[in-house]
Specification:
The longest helix has 11 residues. The protein has a four-stranded antiparallel β-sheet. It is about 20% helix and about 40% strand. It has one domain: 2-Layer Sandwich (Alpha-Beta Plaits), CATH 3.30.70. The chain is α+β, with helices and mostly antiparallel strands.
C-alpha cells in the first residue's frame, strides 16, 4: 500500500523475555497496545544473547528452566502514531531501552492490498 511508503520512524524497545506487565509477558502487552492503537505493524525479535545497563550477559542455557533473553520490539510508523503509543506504554516498561530513528520505507507488498 502506498500509504506506508516514504519517510517514517523506526521505534525499538529493548526488554527482557521475563519482563511482565499485569501478570502477562510485557512484549505481549506492548504488541497488543500497538495493535489497539492502529500502529502499522510491529515485530518482536528474540536475541540469542545480550547485556544492558547491569553488564550481566543473558544467553540461552539448556540447563536453566526460566530463560532471561533479550527481546527487541520494532515498530515502523509515522511520528504522529508513535508519540501517543509511547505515552500509552510509559508506565508498562519498568526497565528497558527505547530508541527511535528515521527510516525510508521503499516497499510494502501485501497480496490483499496490492503492491506498493
Amino acid at each position: 500500500m502506498k500509504r506506508y511508503l516514504g519517510q517514517r520512524k523506526l521505534l525499538r524497545i529493548y526488554i527482557a523475555s521475563d519482563d511482565t506487565y499485569d501478570g502477562k509477558p510485557l512484549w505481549e502487552s506492548l504488541l497488543g497496545t500497538a495493535q489497539e492503537m492502529g500502529i502499522a505493524g510491529a515485530t518482536v525479535f528474540k536475541g540469542v544473547a545480550g547485556f544492558g545497563a547491569h553488564s550481566e550477559i543473558h544467553t540461552f542455557n539448556v540447563w536453566v528452566l526460566k530463560q532471561k533473553l533479550p527481546l527487541v520490539i520494532e515498530i515502523v510508523d509515522e511520528m504522529e502514531k508513535i508519540r501517543p503509543y509511547l505515552e500509552a506504554i510509559d508506565d508498562k516498561v519498568d526497565e528497558g531501552f527505547v530508541t527511535m530513528s528515521d527510516v525510508s520505507v521503499i516497499a510494502y507488498k501485501h497480496p490483499k492490498h496490492g503492491n506498493g
